[in-house]
Structure formats: structure tokens, C-alpha cells
Fold DUF7704 domain-containing protein.
Amino acid sequence: MRNPLPASYYYFFWLVEPALTLCGAIYAIFLPEKYASELLPPHYERVTTIMGNTVRGQIVIGGLGSCFLLLAMISLSLFPIIKHTLKDQPAAQAKLVKGLLIPLAIADLTHIFVTLIPMPMSLLETPQKWTTLVNGNVWITTVLFIVRVSYLLGIGRKKTASPSNTLAAIENDTKKVPHSNPSFEKDSKKVPPTSPSVEKDTKKAQPGIPAVEDVAHEAPSVNQTPVTPSKTPRRRTRVKEAAHIETS
């Protein structure tokens, strides 16, 4: 979805538009006589130039200024709430901003319409003769309408990732579990057989070092008792030898 309230649109609707509307409200409420005289050039309907001095005129112009003040207060109070309170809910932000701008855009058209329709054709065909107040009512309101329509059309609002799509992507990624490779499991379970030649080689002793098995065989057993040679005197041996010679 598109960015619900970029900084450029936010500051325009929150500060610029209310400032312009407040200027119109102050002008109408505190200077009704001048406001009434500025609605038309001096040489058009000179009788109505004193409308701002009458009670009826002041009530009408004061009511118009009160409406301007109301519109300014709505923008000043609502846009910060939409921007900051609902910053984690872009869909709600977009709906609220659109719900506010669409009625204002319709009001812009009606304001331009009711300003131009009562004018005589000679004055409509010569905008250079318009007063400052008429130019403000027409051209400033036209600019406001263009900005509102630009927002509604998505101009200047970059597309951002939808939170729902982002959440769905995260859930899909977490659900994906890598499958184990069967061949890898089989290979890991296989134990390589011991080669007989390797066993023989391990049993062979290095040159100059007796093998472990030979040393084990040569070592005397603990239970064996050493044989001690019998000690015979030399004299007895000689007597036996002499007797043997005589008999022979």
C-alpha cells in the first residue's frame, strides 16, 4: 500500500491549510465591513458595499468566519492524532485521511462555485478586475482542491510494504523447515570396517622396540616361582667319579 501520510502532505494539511483558513476567519470575524466591500470591485453594486455595516451583513459574514475557524481547528487537531496515534496502523490512517479530504474537496468546489456564479458575466470574463478577496476565494481554494486530489490519486505517496503481507511472509519463512538429506543420514550411520592390514600394522613394533605382545609373553608370571639350582658339594662329586673309575 502507499504511504498514508507523507511529510509533505502532513505539514500542508496540518499547518499550511489551517493558516490560510485562519486568515480568512480573522478577516471575516473582525473586519466584516471591509470583507463585504472586497467581495466585488467598487463600481459594482455600490449599494451593497455597506452590507458589512448592517446587522444582517455582520451576522452573515461572522457566520462565514466561524465556519472558516471550524475547518482550521479540525485540521489542526485531527492530523497530528492521525499521524502519531495511529502510526502503527497505516490502513486506518489512510481511511481517516481520505474520509476527511473527500468532504473538504467537495466543499472546495462548492466554495468556488458559489463565489463565481453570482458574478456578472463581464466580471467573470475579466479576472484581472477581481478583488484580492475574490482571487483568494477562487485561486487558493483551487490549489487546496488540487492538493487533495493529488493525495487521493496517490501522487507523491510512495508504495510501502503492507503489514499483512509482511506478516504472512514471516510466517511462511518460519514454517519452512529444511528437510534432512537421507543420503547424509545413511552415510553418517555407516561405520567404516577396520582393515586387517591396518590391524597387523598397528601390532608391528617399530625397529628397536619390542612388540607389546612379545613383551607380555616374555614377562614372568606372577604365580610362577623361580627355580633355584641345587647346591652339591664338590667333594661328593669327586668321590663318585673315583668309584666309577675303579669299578670300570
Q: What stands out?
A: The CA atoms of residues 28 and 65 lie 5 Å apart. Confidence is low (pLDDT under 50) at residues 211-217.
